[in-house]
Design a protein that fits this description.
Layout: H1 4-8, E1 17-19, E2 24-26, H2 28-45, E3 54-58, H3 63-74, E4 78-85, H4 93-108, E5 112-116, H5 117-121, H6 125-131, H7 137-155, E6 160-162, H8 167-179, H9 183-188, E7 192-193, E8 202-203, H10 211-220, H11 238-251, H12 255-274, E9 282-283, E10 290-291, H13 297-312
InterPro entries: Ncs6/Tuc1/Ctu1, Rossmann-like_a/b/a_fold, TilS/TtcA_N, tRNA_thiolation_TtcA_Ctu1, TtuA-like_LIM_N, UPF0021_CS
Binding site for ATP: 58-60, 64, 84, 164, 169
Pfam family, one: ATP_bind_3
């Protein structure tokens, strides 16, 4: 298969990727150009951030976040990587993830801020989940990551925190929330979550790209990344929704992109209007972070951990 753009220029360059839902086969040069152009177009369309501020990239060591950090730095944005080391020992997961983030920081000559969760809170994420009585490590992990990222964003005076969430992630979350008709989450799902009441701005520049497209960009740019997922993700429900959508996508290319784009355009404003009542935020009594309760979710979890250890002793 030949590159579609090269063919229009009278060249016969072999395509390295076939984007079925775009009916577009591209060579290495034109795919990278297409990918970067559309990322910057998304940033501009949703007014995610400017060239004047400092952008924090939440880097995990995976293909999505490292590719995003690489691309935004290449595009001239002032970036800083933020990595949360969770203390996951299995397969040396946390150690390897941190090393890959350090390699990228060195390659693009940008700073990397590292937050070591076991050092700061006393235990790795699995132990915190266990002691707090939670069945899902993933839910606890997500809660702590959001909490830490927000604290660091405010401390570092970042214009926004950019995450590597992709189309597969966003469409899976959308399907899950739609099946449960969770109007609260449906009203908030969007490529940009504006800064508000002590919360930093969060953005998703890769939200319209599939995992296949991002991994292709990473490989073509020789970006090293973790090829295995988190050992704790086995009990996560998102892979089930991704599998269902992958089946639809295989039969009908473009299903995921249409599902997500049409939601943003037509349905999300309706759910946003349903949830237009302002949520009252107050400072957490223990740490000061914005919360809807007297004590934030992280401090409540940490209190349960403390009580559990007291009973053990």
């Amino acid at each position: 298969m030949l590159c579609k753009i090269c063919k229009t220029k009278g060249k016969r360059e072999k395509a390295v990727i076939n984007l079925r839902h775009h009916k577009l086969a591209l060579c290495k040069e034109h795919f990278i150009e297409w990918f970067e152009k559309h990322t910057l177009k998304t940033i501009e369309k949703f007014k995610m951030f400017s060239k004047n501020g400092k952008i924090g990239i939440a880097v995990s060591g995976g293909k999505d976040s490292l590719s995003l950090w690489y691309l935004l730095t290449k595009a001239g944005y002032e970036t800083v990587g933020i990595h949360i080391s969770l203390g996951i020992k299995a397969n040396d997961y946390s150690e390897k993830s941190l090393e890959l983030c350090k390699q990228m920081a060195e390659r693009i000559n940008r700073p990397l801020i590292t937050f070591n969760l076991p050092d700061e809170f006393g235990y790795p994420i699995e132990k915190i989940a266990q002691l707090s009585g939670r069945d899902s490590v993933c839910s606890v992990c997500g809660t702590f990551k959001r909490y830490i990222m927000n604290k660091l964003a405010l401390k570092e005076n970042l214009e926004a925190i950019a995450t590597g969430h992709n189309l597969d992630d966003e469409s899976a979350v959308l399907l899950s929330n739609t099946l449960r008709w969770d109007t609260g989450y449906l009203g908030r799902q969007y490529p940009v979550l504006l800064e508000k009441g002590g919360f930093a701005r969060k953005v998703k520049p890769f939200c319209f790209f599939t995992e296949k497209e991002i991994v292709s960009y990473a490989i073509l740019n020789e970006i090293e990344f973790m090829e295995t997922g988190c050992p704790n993700s086995e009990k996560a429900t998102s892979p089930v929704y991704k599998q269902a959508l992958a089946l639809l996508e295989h039969k009908m290319p473009g299903t995921k992109l249409r599902f997500y784009k049409e939601f943003i355009k037509k349905a999300r404003p309706i759910f946003e209007a349903v949830n237009k009542e302002e949520i009252k935020l107050v400072p957490c009594e223990k740490c000061g972070t914005p919360t809807t309760a007297d004590v934030c979710s992280v401090c409540r979890i940490l209190e349960k951990v403390k009580n559990a250890k007291s009973r053990e002793n």
